[in-house]
Design a protein that fits this description.
disordered N terminus, three-stranded antiparallel beta sheet, about 25% strand, 6 helices, about 170 residues, alpha/beta
Length: about 170
């Protein structure tokens, strides 16, 4: 997998793939043709890659007590905002304004990656990720996913691992 990482970086990869290559972790990039009419970015990615939706995780940005926080949850479920707030010692959580999430992370909606963000945000990874050897998350643009171990993702993002999905 490392060879793919190096090639991706040399060909002007996304900030997420560049961060992964710099960290020296094993990962695989999966590209697919994004269909703008598909109702769900995450479900589209799972279908296109032939991967169970439980192994494909979406990156959501929420506001927890005034602090932007990244939640990484399976595309097959939903984010539990109360559980997210609790996981970081907060009281209230709400989805962040999409434009603010894009400006802060440096990525567009549907392509926000938990890796290589413009500003480092605290991150919570749903505990279900630990059930898999590898999971897929956005590689930083629509139609591009990266597959890596949940342990590497947690380590690289300094994520809290907690049950935040439902």
């Amino acid at each position: 997998m490392a060879k793919k990482a190096k090639k991706q970086q040399q060909s002007g990869g996304t900030p997420a793939t560049v961060a992964l290559a710099a960290a020296g972790v094993d990962f695989t990039v999966h590209a697919y043709e994004h269909d703008p009419s598909h109702p769900s970015y995450g479900e589209e990615a799972a279908e296109a890659m032939g991967v169970s939706p439980e192994r494909v995780f979406k990156t959501l940005v929420a506001d927890v007590d005034g602090t932007l926080t990244v939640a990484v949850v399976p595309v097959a479920g939903q984010l539990d905002l109360k559980a997210l707030a609790s996981a970081v010692g907060g009281k209230r959580a709400a989805m962040a304004d999409p434009a603010l999430a894009e400006r802060t992370t440096g990525y567009v909606r549907g392509g926000i990656s938990p890796l290589g963000q413009r500003k480092v945000l605290r991150t919570v990874l749903d505990a279900s990720a630990s059930s898999f050897d590898t999971i897929c998350v956005s590689a930083g643009r629509r139609g591009l996913e990266v597959e890596l171990s949940p342990g590497d993702l947690a380590k690289l993002t300094s994520a809290v691992v907690a049950r935040i999905g439902r």
